[in-house]
Amino acid sequence: AGDQNLFTSLYPTLSQQLPREPMEWRSELIATKICLCVCLLLEKNCLLKLFRMSDLMIHHFSSQDTEVYKTTVKDDITKWQNVLKAHNSVDWLIVVVESDAKKKNKTNILPRTSIVDKIRNDFCNKQSDRCVVLSDPLKDSSRSQESWNAFLTKLRTLLLMSFTKNLGKFEDDMRTLREKRTEPGWSFCEYFMVQEELAFVFEMLQQFEDALVQYDELDALFSQYVVNFGAGGKCL
């Protein structure tokens, strides 16, 4: 969200650098190192599938003018966050892009972080880490690289948190669906697709033991239904 032209200009660097540092991810059975990749989504589909459940909503802008913030940016962020709340999306990050070229035209009366402070006060409450500064991202300098490193670390952390949380919710919803298997209209085939998707995700993460657990559970459930059908029970 926000300045999409700005984000599009940052995307090539982001997509190259984000996967370079692996992050540790731990399941119930084992810990592993995974590399996170980024996919550019300018339009949000809020009906997420498990393969896309690590989505992180990001709002970008580059203005250092407090008046512009008051009259335009603040309202844009407010509308953006209202949309997220409407869809129960709590994984978000506001990125303030600073550049020396724009700062040279400013006086030193106001502190550099005044815009960031306003955003944190207006939107972040106790989540001050949900607003980060990216300094001169397209410039070849040590300051720019340090800024990128801090931004990428934050992004990796939030993406992994989002993935882990949503994975847990997906598993809880799957168990709830499984518990309804004695109710009229319950379909084993539909349930199979849900748990198979979870197994696919574990395979992508090279968590083969976790994936095997999902297939073993499906095998046991299928065997149970075959026995029940043979005894005159309902079909699949």
From TrEMBL:
GO biological process: early endosome to Golgi transport; intra-Golgi vesicle-mediated transport
Domain (TRAPPC10/Trs130 N-terminal): residue spans on this chain: 1-232
Pfam families listed in its UniProt record: TRAPPC10_1st
Any single Gene Ontology cellular-component annotation: cytosol
Protein name according to UniProt: Trafficking protein particle complex subunit 10
Protein's organism: Pterocles gutturalis
